[in-house]
Amino acid sequence: MKTFEFLKVLDKKEFLRFNDFVSSPFFNKRMDLIKLMEILKENYPLFEVTEEEIYKSVYGKTEYNRQVTRNLISRVQALLDKYLTQLGIEKEKTFSDISFAYELARRGKPERVKKVLDKGIVELKNETYSVEYLKKLFEYLETMNSLSVERENYKLKVEDSVLRGECAADYFLLSFLRIANEFAVFKYVSRYEKNKELFNGFMNYFDFEKYLENLKSLNSEYYAITSIFYYGLLSKVNDPVGRNRDKLKTLVFENLDSMKLKDQYTCWTMLFASYIFTETVQNKPVHKELHEINKVFVQRNLVPRDEIGYVMGSNYHNIAMQAIISKDFDWAEEFLNKYKDHIEPGNRENMYCVLMASCLFGKKEYVRCIDFLSKAVSDNVMTKILIRSTYIKCYYELSYFDEAESAIEALRMFIYQNRELTPQIKRSLPDFIKYSRLLLKAKSANGNLPEEIYITAKNSGGFNSKSWVIEKMEELLK
Fold this sequence. Notes:
Shape: flat
Oligomer: single chain
Strand content: under 5%
Largest sheet: none
Order of helices and strands: HHHHHHHHHHHHHHHHHHHHHHHH
Number of strands: 0
Distance between the termini: 64 Å
């Protein structure tokens, strides 16, 4: 029922806890809300109960008052907001510890404040990402200083100031480089061209090379990850011959085994981006080199995952596609099957089917490819184009001439009617449609393709599936 759509953000375990939350007098003292939650519990998860039924069950009156019921439902929603906040606090231990420490300090318990904060710092050893570790450590240290723990021991205060300063510097520079790397990727993808001094000119005025040398001389545990962020950035924005990318690769594989888990994920992200989102002129194809790097990370089970533990869909896609482009189809198929169940469930089946279809097309298993295409449903325009163009190519390979012609016409109409396509995409498709029709006509007429069509296609600019079109034309001309 749409009235209670807001409750569907909770799984069953969370919903039962929410019921307990509402029943707690600390959070709620209204009996009508407790009664409503009992009704909803009985109707979980569809909540197929009308507002009128709710009113009569909660208040025991026959004359329905819509406004009273709506107010009641609004109060449930307000309590849900508090409940979700509480869940968030429980998961953010640093925030919880610091809040607790402030409450203890207000009540004159400095010894317990120190114990709480010291214990929190010790438990940070379980943090798997250096940026987050430094952020949380800095928050603990700042809180300890603010609450004046060890207020009379000035030697400890000096040591504390040094530690806070080093932590602040390490955290700031790592965060800055992380953001700068994100900007470089977004700039590349969006073709951002505004000529504006970025980040207040910080990159121009700070000597990162000297800072990294100093970290190395101090045997800082943050030397490796800071260097990887730095050379990852340079490999995207200032790497005319690929020297910074080579430096990045060396740093990654020299330090990978000794790094925190999410720092290891960062290594893969930096390496991948240095090949794909770079201004460097690629003098030779890089997909095979990148695929070999991907294989190392997959072998070590270092495919980046999100906070819940799912493999990120974009990374699943990118690793599979580099294998497919490199024509390592058996490895790609094994990877897709092995990691399928590790993808977020909402997009799992569609992503798997589309990628598996691409892999099977490369293996020339066209019937199986069509079967996977038929199972894929996507709202993404680019994925729709991929599915439609792959259907055309499969039907051509199988000599399903009528089906191929229908698929070509369907793609033509899709382009004509779709307003989401960028001009660049629209320019890449008409030639594919034109040459697919000519290929189909020639193949159905026993391979009679005029050579001038082949020459024109080969000399034309890039268009969708050009390499496949040229390959099929050359087969007909033999």
